[in-house]
Specification:
two-stranded antiparallel ribbon; globular
Length: 290
């Protein structure tokens, strides 16, 4: 593991600042998280050490907050990278095939980070936008690679550019599988408790309505996770995807492309991202005259 510095923090005029905190990209985050646990060792670590079963909403909130800090946190991004590394220090065990693992293994730690790049590329298409140009893709990957250094990855642990990423990605598609955790996350019949945050009247209403609300939410979650997952990864995991589902996904993309860009920034972006973007545009205070 290497130490990071502020040079690795994504630039305020970069593509990660433009896209990571926007609602359309947030919809893609569960696809990246599901791809992460499709690696047998990562899935085994989450199965044994994560609280995603007992505190699913809190776990999702913390993951989202962490990703936002990597991109928009400035100096806090470096501290968050250290926190994430320390969080995984003692995670070890054996996967379903009996192979030992440790969360700091570069191949595993690198895979967890790597999933974000192909999901971001595919999410742009799903969301009704034009593909990234080769130049934009190279910039996006360079910024994401910097985030990897914030998280403790070394340059040699990550492909150097998008061209080198492609054979790495194809090789990793041969290693992933529909692990126990993947199947559980996509199971529309699994029981998930209602969120327990917010004012008590809202929590009470959610508890009362949850038996009716959760089944369609679970089906929608599976649809979004599978749809925002790159098609070759979807095939590698054996996830069914029909032409009808693809048409529904494209219709959703057209709606997102029409509605989201027209929203005010405070609604278009998550609060942390919107606040950071406003602060970055604020004029610098003039230094007092000497």
């Amino acid at each position: 593991m290497e130490s990071a510095d502020l040079a690795d923090v994504p630039p305020v005029d970069g593509l990660l600042w433009e896209h990571t905190g926007e609602l359309r990209m947030v919809l893609a985050l569960p696809a990246a998280l599901t791809l992460q646990v499709a690696h047998p060792a990562v899935g085994a670590g989450v199965d044994a050490h994560s609280v995603f079963r007992t505190d699913p909403w809190g776990r999702a909130e913390r993951s989202l907050r962490s990703v936002q800090l990597w991109v928009y946190g400035g100096r806090q991004a470096v501290a968050e990278g250290r926190r994430v590394r320390e969080l995984h220090r003692d995670i070890r065990g054996s996967d379903a095939h009996g192979r030992p693992y440790h969360a700091w293994q570069p191949g595993l730690y690198g895979w967890v980070h790597a999933t974000g790049f192909p999901v971001m590329r595919h999410a742009r298409l799903v969301s009704g936008e034009r593909p990234f140009t080769p130049q934009e893709e190279a910039r996006l990957y360079a910024e994401w690679r910097g985030v990897g250094r914030l998280l403790g990855l070394r340059d040699r642990d990550m492909p150097p550019d998008p061209e080198a990423f492609r054979p790495y990605w194809q090789r990793m598609l041969g290693e992933i599988e529909a692990t126990v955790v993947v199947r559980e996350l996509l199971d529309v019949h699994r029981r998930v408790p209602p969120p327990d945050r917010g004012p008590w009247p809202l929590r009470w209403l959610l508890r009362a309505a949850w038996p009716v609300l959760w089944p369609p939410l679970a089906r929608g979650h599976r649809f979004l996770v599978t749809g925002f997952m790159p098609p070759d990864a979807r095939r590698a995991l054996g996830l069914p995807w029909s032409a009808r589902q693809e048409r529904r996904l494209r219709r959703l993309g057209r709606v997102l492309a029409t509605v989201v860009p027209r929203l005010p920034e405070r609604l278009r972006y998550l609060p942390a991202a919107a606040g950071a973007r406003r602060a970055a545009r604020a004029p610098q205070r003039r230094a007092p005259a000497r």
